[in-house]
Structures are given as structure tokens and as C-alpha cells.
Design brief:
Elements (H helix, E strand, L loop, with lengths): L2 H31 L3 H4 L1 H20 L5 H21 L3 H28 L6 H30 L1 H22 L10 H9 L2 H21 L2 H9 L6 H25 L1 H22 L3 H17 L1 H11 L5 H27 L6 H23 L28 H5 L3
Length: about 425
């Protein structure tokens, strides 16, 4: 594995930690700033809003900037946002800090996915992208529980100070390990926007919104299901969430090779399996051992969908994949918000604590239906790997050629 991919994974670890840690710190923040827990929940929404806004905006602003330099700039914005969150004296300024921290999220993963694909030979691009996303999954196993524990013992501000330090480490790693990669000056923002309007790209984004919403319809209420239905004590919830994170990591490890081998079959299979396992969870939730096994499976299968979805929009955007890849991160966050909202609707309707599992299964099935429609419309067109090849310097990009890219050779693979 090129060390450059490790730098991307370190950055993803920091991003994943700050994205999800707020859920465990809401009571502490609410008590410290004199607000209610439901009101403090807007801090989660503020970050997600930053992702949705920032993905297209910052990708557009950086369309002419060399990739390496823009990745460092994005991590700098992330670091400042977390530092601002740690020092925020009022709830309103903390909202602003969270919004700022979320702005570079989508653009970073969009640019990072394109860079990861450049760093390896053809046939290994999906594995490279999945390696970057491993940092996100490991954050759910190690980063979020550790940061939550730190916040509970030293105060929630300490958590965001530590995440800011991780951001500084990520910036140094990116500056040191990522080879110089030029911006695609032959594409520009106009080319990126035209690529984003491609029917297959739009269907891919829609698949993300529906398919991944199925995961968050359940994940958002997993803690309540474990205590109210399965019978676990509240103190056991972090362990359950860590098991979910382990499942995510297993899914990310499997997603790369499977996507490189067969993109659409991997996408169809993962979405179909996700719908099935969510239905199964409706029946296994009351049994402790079966519930835990199912939680791991949901994490694994749910995250198995992410790499083929990311590679699909990149491939269909052809020579202008950055905005499409970043927009896919916005789609994931819309899925997070939409899934949580739909799960809350069925709970409010009085259908029981496990009803979000069935709602999630319907959403996953809808995602599969969109994916199958896209495949039918695209029949006969190969899902070729993204070929974004550039010189090792900061100059103009070269035409794509078969074989390993110059960036891959510079990375030593």
C-alpha cells in the first residue's frame, strides 16, 4: 500500500471522529452551554449541512488548484473548524464551528477518491478508494469511543482540541506523502458540471440517497433498540456501536477487491443483502447474541455499498469525476438525515422500536431498484475504471493511457 493512501486514511480518521463523536457528547455540551439535549442535537445537523453545502462549493473553488495543495487546504479548514468548536464560548458559535468543520468533508473525500485512484495501477482503484475510507470506519471503532470517553472525563472541549491535533497531523502527512498532482485544467468547473449532469451519475447519486438511508434509518435509533428491545444496559451501548464499526471495517476491506472485480454485481448484491439483513434484524433484535451478530452484518453490508457507489459515479463522470465524487458525499449525508427522519416517523406512528428496521429495508430495496434501472439503461456500456492520469509535476495533465499512472510510479508501486 502506498504511504500516500495512509495519509488519506489518517485524514479520514479525523473526519470520521469529529462527524460522529457529537452524538455521544450531546448531554455534556447541553449541560455546559445551558441548553437542552434536543436543541444540542442541532450540532449534528449543522455538521451535515456543512457537508452538503461544502461539497459542491469547495470542489468548485478548487477545480483549478493542484490536488495535493487543495487537500492540505481542506484539512486546514477542517482543523480550524474543530479548534473554533473547542473554543466556542456560546452555543451559536459552536454551531458555526461545527458548520465550518463540515464544509470540507465532502470535497476532501471527492478529491481524495480521485487522488487515491491516481496512485495505483488499473484494476486496483476501488481498493485504493476503500483504503482511504478505512480511516472513516476505524474512527467508529477507536476514534469515536476514545473521543467520547475523553470528553466525558476532561470536558467536551478537549475532544475537539484532540481532533484539531489530528487535523494538523493529517495536514503534515498529506504535504509529505502525497505526490504532486496537477488540477485537471483541461476540464475545469464547466466540465465537472457537465459530467455531474450525466444520467448515470444522477442515478448513482439517487441510489446513494435511497440505499444508504436504509442504514441510517436503523443506526440512528440503534442505541434505543438495544436498551428497549434487546435488554442491554445503557453502559453497553458503546460496545454495540463498536461492533457496528467493526462490521463497517470488514465491509470496507471486502468492498475494494469485489468492486475492482465486478462493480455493478457488487452494488446489486450489497443493496439486496442490506434489505434482507434489515428485515432479519426486526426478528433478531429481542435475542442478545443474534442482535449483536446482526448489528455486525448491518455495518459490514451497509459499508460494502459505499465503494461501488463512489466508483460508479467517478467512472460515469469519466474525465471530470471530482465534483461527482464530492456530490456523492453530499448524497450520503442526505441519506443520513433522510434515514433518521423516516425512522423517526415510523417510531412516532407507534409501530414499535424495531419498526425502523423495516423502513430501512424498504429504503434499501428502493436503492436497489434505482441501481437496477441504471444498469438496464446502461446495458452494454462497460464500467471502466476511472483513468485520471497526470504527470508527477504541477503542470498540465496528460491524456489517459493504459497501465499504471505516473503518480502510481512516483508512489513506488
Amino acid at each position: 500500500m502506498p504511504l500516500a493512501l495512509l495519509a488519506l486514511a489518517v485524514a479520514a480518521f479525523g473526519i470520521g471522529t469529529t462527524e460522529f463523536v457529537m452524538m455521544g457528547l450531546l448531554p455534556d455540551v447541553a449541560n455546559d452551554l445551558g441548553t437542552s439535549v434536543p436543541t444540542a442535537g442541532y450540532l449534528v445537523s449543522a455538521y451535515a449541512l456543512g457537508v452538503v453545502i461544502g461539497a459542491p462549493l469547495l470542489t468548485a473553488l478548487g477545480s483549478r488548484v493542484p490536488r495535493k495543495r487543495w487537500l492540505v487546504v481542506l484539512m486546514a479548514v477542517f482543523t480550524v473548524g474543530n479548534l473554533a468548536s473547542a473554543l466556542a464560548p456560546t452555543f451559536g458559535l459552536l454551531i458555526a464551528g461545527r458548520l465550518l468543520a463540515g464544509l470540507p468533508h465532502g470535497a476532501f473525500f471527492g478529491v481524495g477518491a480521485v487522488v487515491a485512484a491516481r496512485l495505483v495501477r488499473e484494476g486496483r482503484q476501488a481498493r485504493a478508494v476503500a483504503t482511504m475510507f478505512l480511516g472513516l470506519t476505524i474512527a467508529n471503532i477507536v476514534g469515536v469511543p476514545a473521543a467520547t470517553l475523553l470528553g466525558q472525563h476532561l470536558g467536551w472541549r478537549a475532544t475537539f482540541l484532540v481532533v484539531a491535533v489530528i487535523g494538523l497531523v493529517a495536514m503534515a502527512s498529506l504535504a509529505r506523502l502525497i505526490p504532486p498532482l496537477p488540477a485537471d485544467r483541461n476540464t475545469g468547473l464547466g466540465g465537472e458540471l457537465r459530467a455531474l449532469g450525466d444520467r448515470q451519475v444522477l442515478l448513482g447519486l439517487l441510489t446513494t440517497v435511497f440505499g444508504f438511508a436504509g442504514v441510517f434509518a436503523v443506526y440512528s435509533y440503534l442505541a434505543s433498540m438495544m436498551t428497549e428491545v434487546t435488554g442491554f444496559a445503557a453502559g453497553s451501548v458503546p460496545l454495540v456501536l463498536a461492533l457496528f464499526g467493526i462490521g463497517m471495517t470488514l465491509g470496507a476491506l471486502a468492498a475494494g477487491p469485489l468492486t475492482d472485480r465486478a462493480l455493478r454485481p457488487t452494488l446489486y448484491g450489497s443493496l439486496g443483502a442490506l434489505a434482507l439483513v434489515l428485515v432479519v434484524f426486526h426478528f433478531t433484535a429481542p435475542v442478545k447474541w443474534a442482535a449483536l451478530v446482526t448489528v455486525v452484518l448491518i455495518g459490514a453490508i451497509g459499508f460494502l455499498t459505499t465503494t461501488p457507489l463512489q466508483m460508479l459515479v467517478m467512472n460515469k463522470a469519466q474525465q471530470a469525476p471530482t465534483l461527482a465524487a464530492a456530490s456523492n458525499q453530499s448524497a450520503f449525508n442526505l441519506a443520513n438525515a433522510g434515514g433518521a427522519w423516516i425512522g423517526g416517523l415510523v417510531l412516532s406512528a407507534g409501530w414499535g422500536w424495531t419498526s425502523p428496521t423495516l423502513a430501512g429495508a424498504v429504503l434499501a430495496a428502493a436503492g436497489l431498484a434505482v441501481a437496477l434501472l441504471a444498469g438496464l439503461l446502461d446495458r452494454g456500456a462497460p464500467d471502466v475504471p476511472t483513468r485520471i492520469v497526470a504527470r508527477g509535476g504541477e503542470g498540465e495533465p496528460e491524456p489517459a493511457t493504459p497501465g499504471a499512472s505516473d503518480a502510481a510510479r512516483q508512489a513506488g508501486i
